[in-house]
Amino acid sequence: MRPVPICLLSTLVLSLGARAQEAKVEVNTSGTELIESDRGWEVKATVNSALPHSPLERGDIIIRVAGQSVARLGPISIPALLQYAQIKDVSVVVERAGQEKELIFHPPAPPGSQGSHETSAMGATFRSVEDTQRILIVDIIPGSPAERAGLKSDDELLTVGGKAVGEMTLAQLADLLSKPRDSGERIRVKRESKLIDATLKPVYFSQSLRSLGAPKMPFPLYARGEPAPAFSLPDLKGRSVALNAFRGKPVLFTFWASWCHVCVAEADVFDRLSREMGTRLVVLGLDVEDDPEDLQHFLKIRPISYPVLIAGDFFSPTPAAYDLFALPLTILIDPDGYISYLQTGFSPNGPLESRVRSLVAQAHGN
């Protein structure tokens, strides 16, 4: 699945093992706010939701996604399941007004749609220029494979896999890019007078996406009530930093990259919270799929006040453990090591800061 300029969330007592969680966990995925409930995940709001053609309404309780019961699934798996709709039609069963109702999420601009001059795949929106064989990129989803590949709006797509795009329809293009080889799809674009080669890399392996009915999802399913997956990653000086070392304090961390414009905007919030909270809050940036020289150059120009850890690429153990499919993915962990709040994407007016301040105040008895 991904990423795509795809940018898609009463006290409940849960008890697994010896731990009882006192507060409900919240998820904000692409502007859709969710909160855990006894039966599944309840939709709190869908304001400015970026989930494609989302049929969700406030008050819906999501019960099943793509045949998977979500009643016992934790916050890490929920955005990944909903964003599965970026790949193919997905069935979402909700409880609405006391009755179960099946909703269908459709991928944006489905391949083969008649009369359409646009289609979307791998986080890019492609538009055919009327009365020509030219195809332009008109939109890029932050944190998507298209942005990772360095593509920009107004780029003209020339070739895909060595084949000239003038030889294919938009439907054929979308179908080809929606089923990339595991190593990625080589493309060439024209940017002003320059020719640029890039590779669109899939987030989930294509052979895992053959059928929605497959018993195994193309990403791990994370159980509700489990601690946040542990990790130990090197910082910029090669020193190992372990998540478990911060037990007893709230931890705020984000998967980000210097090439992700939304991530850089979010870094301003992280800097402010890090300076304001001091030792009351641990703030970490987990860098993903960055060229080491590009990262060092970025940090010289735009220093970051909190530790930056090297998390590898999207398929590395730590990103995979968090079902990472696009950047940024931001997670707030309580002092006991459990996820309190999770969001995909970033909005300056979103609830992140208020959730952080509330947890820090609670942890320190304020």
Q: Could you give a quick summary of the protein structure above?
A:
This protein is α+β, with helices and mostly antiparallel strands. It has seven helices and 23 strands.
Protein architecture, described:
With 366 residues, the protein is an alpha+beta fold. Among the domains are: 118-200, Roll (Pdz3 Domain); 227-366, Glutaredoxin (3-Layer(aba) Sandwich). It contains 7 helices and 23 strands. It has helices spanning 77-83, 145-148, 170-178, 261-277, 292-301, 317-321, 352-363; strands spanning 14-16, 19-21, 26-29, 32-36, 41-45, 61-65, 68-69, 90-96, 99-105, 118-121, 124-128, 135-140, 156-160, 163-164, 185-191, 194-200, 232-234, 240-242, 251-256, 282-287, 308-310, 329-333, 339-344. Strands 3, 4, 5, 6, 7, 8, 9, 19, 20, 21, 22 and 23 form a 12-stranded mixed β-sheet that branches. Strands 10, 11, 12, 13, 14, 15 and 16 form a 7-stranded antiparallel β-sheet that branches. The longest helix has 17 residues, at 261-277. The chain is globular, with a radius of gyration of 21 Å. 45% of the residues are buried.
List keywords for this structure.
366 residues, alpha+beta, Pdz3 Domain, Glutaredoxin, twelve-stranded mixed sheet, seven-stranded antiparallel sheet, 30% strand, disordered N terminus
